[in-house]
Design brief:
7-stranded antiparallel β-sheet, Immunoglobulin-like, Rossmann fold, 5-stranded parallel β-sheet, 323 residues, 7 helices, 20 strands, alpha/beta
Length: 323
């Protein structure tokens, strides 16, 4: 899964990122922008945008949040309740938002939220620690948006669309209740070849969905969820600690893709400690680092990085065009 080919080194003036237009610039105080600032709300907004074919996801940076966290949870349009953080420029914010507005999100997992907020958040944190990005859907959204099983091609077998978004597996958050409407929809999906992972505590009413091909029930620990997802969907990204080879639990990422490139925004969410990681991607081609602070583009083949506390790295994989 590691990318090996690299573009030739440019010898003259630095190659620069495209210059974002003014629509990607941060909104500074005083501002009337109404947008999410809690991370779970940002994830919900990013998920709904993906499912309804929208590209912009606004968020407000407040005292208890950082722009890097908001971006790593799916935002790509930022307003600031106060001045920009020290050392951060408007151009840097615009580049980061533009970067995270390219192409479409790559998220293979749909997590169906339950009415148990704490248990749903446990499942969310487990997925993040597993380097598995995902979309959320509330029962209301799940019931409202059109859902269809994708039967075209072996690679897409078992995948499904919810609105405009396509997923390979559905994870069902711990719950004490699911409506008959939701259970009927899940059963229809399962009978059509879909894959469902029930996580943790579940009501007895799911019994009629169990013991079917494509259905597993697992605990709510990260390793349990990893086993449940592994049969249905391969991760598009991974980060492991160089010293131990263990999963780097503090890493968060966003992956987007267009016809020519894959874009990876990688954050070390640990605000106290740097992390030395080895990165891997489900993409092949030439690799560049796009410096969001300066705009400079640098070819690279080094996928081992020390990412400072709270730091980020933006990597782009450009597909090799065959004649």
């Amino acid at each position: 899964m590691v990318v090996v080919s690299v573009t030739a080194q440019r010898k003259n003036k630095p190659v620069m990122m495209p210059v974002p237009d003014a629509s990607w610039a941060p909104i500074l105080p005083p501002s009337n922008m109404i947008a999410a600032w809690e991370l779970m709300d940002v994830k919900r907004e990013a998920s709904l945008a993906h499912q309804t074919g929208q590209n912009r996801v606004g968020a407000v940076v407040r005292d208890n949040s950082s722009m890097e966290d908001l971006l790593s949870w799916g935002a790509n349009g930022l307003a600031f309740s106060k001045a920009l953080p020290n050392g951060v420029t408007k151009e840097q914010v615009a580049r980061a938002c533009w970067f995270l507005g390219q192409g479409q999100p790559v998220r293979d997992v749909l997590l169906l939220e339950s009415r148990l907020a704490a248990e749903t958040r446990t499942a969310v944190d487990a997925l993040l620690a597993l380097d598995r990005d995902f979309d959320l859907a509330s029962p209301e959204t799940f019931a409202k948006l059109p859902m269809a099983l994708n039967r075209s091609g072996e690679a897409q077998a078992g995948s499904f669309s919810l609105g405009s978004a396509t997923y390979h597996v559905m994870a069902v958050a711990p719950s004490d209740f699911w409506s008959e409407e939701i259970l009927d929809t899940l059963l229809e999906y399962i009978n059509a070849g879909g894959r469902v992972v029930f996580v943790g505590r579940q009501p007895l009413t799911i019994q009629r969905l169990l013991f079917r091909t494509g259905v597993v029930r697992v605990g709510d620990l990260p390793d349990d969820i990893a086993r449940g997802l592994s049969y249905a969907s391969q991760s598009d990204f991974h980060a492991e600690l160089v010293e131990s080879g263990e999963r780097a639990a503090s890493i968060r990422y966003q992956h987007r893709r267009d016809d020519k490139r894959d874009y990876f925004y990688v954050l070390n969410s640990d605000r106290q400690h740097a992390v030395n990681v080895r990165l891997g991607f489900a993409a092949s081609g030439s690799v560049e680092e796009w410096d969001l602070a300066t705009g400079i583009v640098t070819p690279t083949k080094l996928l081992q990085r020390e990412i400072p506390a709270g730091g980020t790295v933006a990597l782009v994989v450009t597909k090799i065009q065959t004649k």
